[in-house]
Request: fold
Amino acid sequence: MELNAAIETRSLNKRFGGVVAADNVNFKVLSGELRCMIGPNGAGKSTLFAMLCGLESADSGQIFVFGQDVTRTQAFKRVRLGVGLTFQTNRAFHDLSVRENLTIPRASAKQENMEVGQARLAFALDAFGLDPNDQTKAGELPHNQLQWLEMAMILVGYPNLILLDEPTAGMAPEETQQTAKVLKHLNSTGLTTVVVEHDMAFVKDIAQTVTVLHQGQVFAEGSVAEITAHENVRKIYLGRA
Amino acid sequence: MKTIIGLISGGGDIGRTRVFWIGFGVIVLLFLLYPTQTSAFRVSNVSYYLLNIPLGLGMALLWGYCGVLSFGHVAYFGIAGYTYGVIAGNMTENPLGPLAGVAGGLLASAFIAGIFGYFVFYARVQKWIIPILTLVLTLLLETFLGQTAGYQWRIGSVLLGGYNGMTGIPWFQLGGFVFEGYSFYYLCLFVVLACYFSLRMLVNSNFGQVIVAIREDEVRTELLGYDIRARQWVVFVLSAMLAGLSGLLYVQWGNYITPSQVGLLQAALPVIWAAVGGTTSLLAVVISAFTLNWVTYTLSSQGNQYAMVIIGTLLVVTMLFFPRGIVVMVAERLGRLTTRRTAPSKP
Amino acid sequence: MDVMPLVLSLLYQFGTGAAFLFLAALGLVVILGMMNIINLAHGELMMIGAYTATLTYHAGVPFWLSVILSFFVAAAFGAVLELLIVRRFYGRQLGALVVTWGVSLVLGQGTLLFFGPFLPSIGIPGGSFSYGDFSFSAYWLILVLISLLLILGLWWLYNRTPYGLQAKATMQNADMARSLGVRTPLIYTLTFSLGAGLAGLSGALLAPTVTIAPFMGQQFVAPAFITVVVGGSANVIAGAVASSAILAAVKTPIGMAFGAFSGTVALLLAALIIIRIMPNGISASLQKYFNRRAGGAMR
Reply:
């Protein structure tokens, strides 16, 4: 595995009024990594995701995607560099059919991703039990399938990096396990994955490295074992759970 | 051919059954035969109801499918009409003049809409700003055209004419064949059918699915890799050209145009057709545009002063009680009745 | 020629231009800011104010009393409108736009049918005086003063009264406000009614300067909406004040040099350029700027 960064931020700052959402964040995920990000509510996880994919602009600092400076790049252009994102609250198109949800995403123009991308998509659809020709309205799917649908949608674009904001929120334990299985498999094909998660069992199951955000800062970073043993992390986060 | 049929009968509009298409065919046949059964005066009136339909279709595409509301699409109607008047009016000796006028009119609409659209879509303004600014644009256009009375407001040999408007605008002609009376009626019918089928194909294409996705959730669509600003801009320009098409047919029909065509009252009409029909269906807007033009034209030609009060009330009532449109809701009711009849085994 | 009269005249033109824009946009701004609804019947509410003032004035009521009466007539009208129609459209911004447009058509046409094509006008009260080569209308100077008083009054209303506190709470989080015992439907009705009343007041104040006709509202539509668009919805009162000033600064010289119509076109162009740079209006940009400054100071 090459040791180049899939995504990297340098001294990223962002505030909303008096609230500091990102305070000098230096965050780096290597290509092929499966990273989990944890932190209490309001730690700045979702804002960091929004800045990474271009929905929020940073007050200062830089963002690199696959070595390219995208700090001032429009969101859709970042997606075309191979970034996919799912939202904390499900944002599949609820009034459109499953089929439309899966035909609307833009297939990547990069031919080199196509074969592996198609294989990833096929695997996910199969593992999630989603039929790409299903005419049911997405809004009528059960919650877990709706979550999975949004994950499948971003795989249609053959991304090289996916950012998932609480993908297993509201899922039953066996559905969470299934999600973990799929994410681990996708990662084994080289898909860089960053997951924001609250469920520590899930994090322990999938993560190689864990980043802890707290009050807009990278508070700690390390292996699952290191993080769970980290006294201050236990204080701010794990102890409260 | 198969893909064309597939695109036409895709899920982007109401009416996909065999019964529907038979009914559709019968109605088109009736329209084709209509001139043989009635007076030239009535044919001319029906031409007027037909020629407004592209404007309504443009509203449906922009508002219903793309989620962008314009209150000033009559501006593009007027721009195309006036441009045609100027070009064709200056080329009366040349049989290609009207064709050049049509091309010029459509280009002018597209050009102004393109500039305006660039500012609003590429700034990613909030949703309410676009209808407001489009309305302001058309009001300014009306004010401008209203003060063009007098000989100094002359382009070539054509006078803009101030509040009295531009008169003597030539008929449309192709290769020496002049479209007036009955032939103009068939021209309108052809344009309406062509617009309807093209748009039905467009909304069922991938492009159409993406604009619906933009309507549903702009941010999600952008994060699937689409430049939503460009898509909205394209749809805006396209719908402005549809409005322009209606404007062209209008000046060819009446041979005149006045600034009140781009005024506040006219500006409300396409919005009303779209709302009453149901913005999410092209066919529903075709039906309501035709019917409402018929009603208003009949009322106002009888000197009924209540026409605009009635139309305005209809809009308020529709928005309050039939938010998805009267035609669409009736069609759904009918659809439910027929499916119940064909599948009675269902509980 | 003296420079002083020229400077004063320019200032006067600018001040009256800004006052006109501010008055035209006032009711719209209050409703947008507190309820996130664009009231397209705004022009017709101004017309109702102007009609009330004109009819009562010609019936013998003193001018200033008839202006105050127009506030209450338009406010009552606004309350009815809110209760019957607008209330069903909260959270549906485009739907509210369309339905209020329907209302505006009915009101305009209805007035035409009921009162005929125009009413006798009110002469401009107060006369004028001249200084150097320029003449100044006392009434317009009073309008500038009234605009300033209205700004202060609104500030007081929203920052110093129980209504203002509850309205701000409702605007920020209606559910929370409701659970704390604020009667949010009442707040909405009052706010819409206040916006309508202010539109009526502006219509009455501007009545002596324009022709009184059923569609007189239309002439306020373009300037009012441009002012609101440029101001933005982040802090509407501050936005409206700032944008009236900026737009008057654009309109005054162009209008003086090339005529009133060019001035209005310049307004639209200025608005397009300003929103291209500041998509959420001046008030949002100002807020962002102050946030950053505050952030820098804290660091």
About this structure: The longest strand of chain A covers residues 5-16. The interface with chain C takes residues 15-18, 59 of chain A (CB under 8 Å). DSSP finds nine helices and ten strands in chain A.
